[in-house]
Design a protein that fits this description.
Layout: H1 3-27, H2 50-69, H3 83-116, E1 120-121, E2 127-128, H4 152-187, H5 193-198
Antiparallel strand pairs: 1-2
Helix pairs in contact: 1-2, 1-4, 2-3, 2-4, 3-4
């Protein structure tokens, strides 16, 4: 498979992942699926915008670059027909790095949010974080400590877990594009688009 075609496949995969991450982060603004009475009632990590900025916006740019690599004009650069394609593949490595940083940020925020647990209304009469060191993950009986909003613990866990998994996938895809980009930079596009034009 050509390095450009491979990059296009990665771009096609990254775009829906980025959109899903944005949606997950937006849903987290509605604890338990309900509108919060006060922004202070929402888990702090939601406002770090890991899914919106990290795995969302910062991932769209690399995805669009990867999509455009296959159609990149590789002819007539410095008298070398493959120079343009090689430069484009080198540029994709930089964008892949940006994407990996964004996804890594989302991954870290999500892991911390899962470990800390959701912010909820407890029997003490306050909105607080009732769980310590992720103790609620293996002990579901502790979930009853959150009185409101209803279903906040599974809501919190599900959405942040989705962000965590999608962040891991995005990091892996960006790392793969770094390798693919290095191959494309060193070896050029194996399809030889200029040769195809002259055929």
């Amino acid at each position: 498979m050509c390095s450009g075609s491979c990059a296009k496949c990665l771009g096609i995969t990254l775009i829906p992942l980025a959109i899903l991450c944005v949606l997950c982060n937006i849903l987290l603004f509605f604890p338990g699926g309900l509108v919060a009475d006060n922004s202070d009632d929402i888990t702090d990590e939601v406002f770090f915008f890991g899914g919106i900025l990290g795995s969302g916006v910062l991932m769209i740019f690399p995805a669009l670059v990867f999509l455009g690599l296959k159609n990149n004009d590789c002819c007539g650069c410095c008298g070398n027909e493959s120079c343009g394609k090689r430069f484009a593949m080198f540029t994709s490595i930089i964008f892949a790095g940006v994407g990996a940083v964004g996804a890594g940020y989302s991954l870290i925020v999500s892991a911390y949010a899962i470990h800390r647990g959701p912010k909820c209304f407890t029997e003490s009469g306050n909105w607080t974080y009732p769980f310590v060191d992720g103790n609620y993950l293996n002990n579901h009986s502790l979930w009853s400590a959150c009185e409101e909003p209803s279903g906040i613990v599974p809501w919190h866990l599900t959405l942040f877990s989705m962000l965590l998994v999608m962040g891991l996938v995005q990091v892996a895809l960006c790392a793969f594009q770094v390798i693919n980009g290095l191959i494309g930079t060193i070896c050029g596009d194996c399809c030889g688009c200029c040769g195809d034009d002259s055929a």
